[in-house]
Amino acid sequence: MDASLVDWSRAQFALTAIYHWLFVPLTLGLSFIIAFMESIYVKTGKEEWKRITKFWMALFGINFAIGVATGIILEFEFGTNWSNYSWFVGDIFGAPLAVEGIMAFFLESTFIAVMFFGWNKVSKRFHLISTWLVAIGANLSALWILVANAWMQSPVGMQFNPETARNEMINFWEVLFSPVAINKFLHTVTSGYVLSSVFVLGVSSWYLLRKRHELMAQKSIIVASVFGLIMSLFLVLTGDGSARLMARHQPMKFAAMENLYEGQTNAPLVAFGILSGEKNEHQKEDFLMKIEIPDFLSYMAFLDANAYVPGIKDLIHGNQERNIISAEEKISRVNRPSKP
Amino acid sequence: METFLGIDYPTLWFLVVGALFSGYAILDGFDLGAGAWHLFFRKEESRRIALNAIGPVWDGNEVWLVIGGGALFAGFPILYAAMFSAMYIPFMLFLAFLIFRAVSIEFRSKEPMPWWRMLWDICYCISSAMLGFLLGVVLGNILQGIAIGPDFEYKGSWLQFINPYAVMVGLTTLSLFMVHGAIYLAMKTEGRLFIKITLLLKRAILFFVVVFVITTILTLLFIPHLSDHLLSNPLLLVIPLLAFLSIANIPRLVSKQKYRYAFFFSALTMSLLLILVAVELYPVLLLSTINPAYSITVHNSASSVKSLKIMLLFVLIGAPMVGIYTLFVYRTFRGKVKLDETSY
Questions:
Q1: What's the pLDDT band for A106 if we cut at 50, 70, 90?
Q2: Which of A234, A251, B91, B211 shows a CA-CA span of 20 to 30 A to B286?
Q3: What is the C-alpha end-to-end distance of chain A, expressed in Å?
Q4: Around Cβ B292, how many Cβ atoms within 10 Å?
């Protein structure tokens, strides 16, 4: 196949994914922030909270609409651009996508109508319930999509069927409750919460500086900073867990992320570094300069300062001493003779 | 093969996907149809009312497509891979119009300048009409079959999707959507706009009947495989008969000004026509024009039974909930459109 065709397909998919992910994370947290604000309005009955809620709701709306539009495109591109991929994994990858639609996305998109256009048509309490359902729906959507994504990172609950050249599902619950999926979900939503808090804080601060809508800005800052502060603590925890899972499930990704070429015990963490920009004969790019924290990478990855962190070289060429098999051997193990 | 209620799992999932796509056609059908009428309305206020008639629901209606697509992907990954790859150009055009339409609706009301609103009005109207038309074009290609080789790979050229028959099915779909959309707008409007819509509606029904009859004749003459099942099993003739009765009922109810019933029958027409398509094709999903043996069927493209079972479980739990709250939200927004501060 023409290599440039693949590159164009990748570029198109990447562009869609980037656009999708510019808007969607904001809706994850903004929906909860709006729900908190409206809860305060219903509790206190103060009109200013209604105004504040509506203001952030408008910003949520734009993000949601573009999120849906780009989401449809992403989904279609699995078929149009990566049809062999769809063939290969559809049995497992498709299931969480379909379940997402039925269990979460419908909920979110139906109640969004009440949330935006129902102010004068339904009771205050019912409107509040709708807003909460939108927030819950948005976050449940994220759960199912991230289950699908986590399965791509760490394929579990499946078996390759050489007769059909497809991966087939063996255990759905294993796919759903895989540790990578749970961590990915928690890390992504908490990132979304922190992002939304910072977004609200940023816009509000700008209003304060400009001395416009000051009351609204102050009140929004209170809600967003409390929410953001609490969630940033969870974010640290889930982020740490995420990297530790990666060190175990995807050692190559981990090694590449840390630019760790030679595996070592007591591996240091490069806290700051500048790459030379040139590759040596092993395709390795050296640091021009770096500041290291001794033992820290080993500790962060395996909670043990003496642990061995495999490097890129070990993973490609194998390391008998450490019982790491080479990439070549791994591939030959996967390529079982297929039936005629 | 394992069955449930006497029906095998791939067929059950075929019914789920069919139900989702007819749900999509009925729901997004009326808002796409309403959008295709947009430029027929001259006054700014009329356009705002027409836009706000679909305002609260268009986004939710579009979600049916996401879910239909997801269900197709999960249940028939091989069909998804082959069809989307073969229909690359119409799907990409479809997606582009989908974006333009969403952006038009969101942007139009953000600025008051006449040129700004005119720009988005044109964009909105054309993209709504093209979406309906392209859906029909894809359906037309599915009806006549496409050039699928062995291994389910597309062997045709990239422009093959556009052919006279597909264009006729496209026009039929668009005109049915416009009838459906006009009935919806008639339910939602009053005064002079309402009178204008009822006049347009009558012309649209006439136009639809003409294209529908031509398409039907073309189908019977040139695509004989689409009437095989009906001829071999005369009991199935009930479906086209019901579809014709349902279509005939629309102008009758419109002239009696019973728009809610007319809306029900235009929705019913869409489901019946889709059921007719499903009955004619089953168990084939995508016929190969190269060799019928290469066709993609419900059984050779389905996911594993395990996967289908899990998803059916979720559908059994989820579908009644979806039905209840969708009806509930539509009830909330019933009645004529009144512009207020939450409007577009």
A1: confident
A2: B211
A3: 24
A4: 11
Instruction: For residue B77, list chain A residues with Cβ-Cβ distance below 8 A.
Output: 86-87, 89-91, 94, 166
Q: How far is B45 from chain A (nearest CA, A)?
A: 18
Q: Cβ separation of A95 and B307 shorter than 8 Å?
A: yes
Which of residues 284 through 313 in chain B touch A, CB cutoff 8 A? 303-304, 306-307, 310-311
Could you tell me if residue B17 is inside a domain?
yes
Interface of A with B in 150-209 (CB under 8 A): 166, 168-170, 172
Cα four-point dihedral sign A113, B178, B174, B13: positive
Find which of A50, A86, A141 to mutate to test the B interface (most B CBs within 10 Å of its CB).
Answer: A86
Q: Is A76 on the interface with B (CB under 8 A)?
A: yes
State which amino acid sits at residue B214. Answer: I
Using the 8-state DSSP alphabet, how is residue B287 labeled? -
Check A72 against B80: CB less than 8 A apart.
no
Q: Measured in whole angstroms, how far is the alpha carbon of residue A158 from the centre of its chain?
A: 22
pLDDT digits 0-9 by tens, B216-227: 999 988 888 888
Q: Are B189 and B146 in contact (CB under 8 A)?
A: no
What percent of chain A is predicted at pLDDT more than 90? Answer: 39
Q: What is the overall mean pLDDT for chain B?
A: 90
Residue of B60, B70, B98 with shortest CB distance to A113: B60
Interval B9-61: pLDDT, tens: 999 999 999 999 999 999 999 999 999 999 999 898 899 999 999 988 888 88
Q: Are B203 and B236 in contact (CB under 8 A)?
A: no
Residues of A in contact with B87 (CB under 8 A): 80
Q: Are A68 and B66 a contacting pair at CB < 8 A?
A: yes
Kindly indicate the confidence band of residue A2, based on its pLDDT and cuts at 50, 70 and 90.
low
Q: Which residue has the tokens 């591109």?
A: A77
| Cα–Cα distance for residue pair B171/A86, rounded to 1 Å | 31
Query: What digits encode the pLDDT tens for the residues B79-133?
Result: 998 888 889 899 999 999 998 998 898 888 888 898 999 999 999 999 999 999 9
ipTM for the assembly: 0.81
Supply B179's token pair. 């009838």
- Predicted pLDDT of residue A336: 58
Selection from A5, A90, A7, A73 nearest residue B158 by Cα: A5
Q: B320: distance to nearest CA of chain A, Å?
A: 10
The candidate with the shortest Cα–Cα distance to A100, out of B276, B315, B169, is B315
The reply to whether B243 falls in a domain is: yes
**Long-range contacts of the stretch B321-328 (C-beta < 8 A, 24+):** B321/A107, B322/A102, B322/A106, B322/A107, B322/A110, B325/A106, B325/A107, B325/A110, B325/A111, B326/A106, B326/A110, B326/B60
The token duo for A298 is 């080993």
Residue A53, Cβ neighbours under 10 Å: how many?
Answer: 25
Total tally of structural domains belonging to chain B: 1
Helix then strand then coil, in percent of chain A rounded to 5, is 70, 10, 20
B58 in any annotated domain: yes
Cβ–Cβ gap B332/A166 under 8 Å: no
Pairwise CB contact (< 8 Å): B73 & A61: no
A94, A107, A118 ranked by CB distance to B74: nearest: A94
Using an 8 Å CB-CB cutoff, list chain B residues near A110.
60, 63, 322, 325-326, 329
Within an 8 Å CB–CB cutoff, is residue A87 touching chain B?
yes
Helices marked H in A154-178? 172-176
Q: Name which of B87, B304, B343 to mutate to probe chain A: the one with the most chain A Cβ atoms within 10 A of its Cβ.
A: B304
What sign results for the dihedral spanned by CA atoms B117, B122, B123, B124? positive
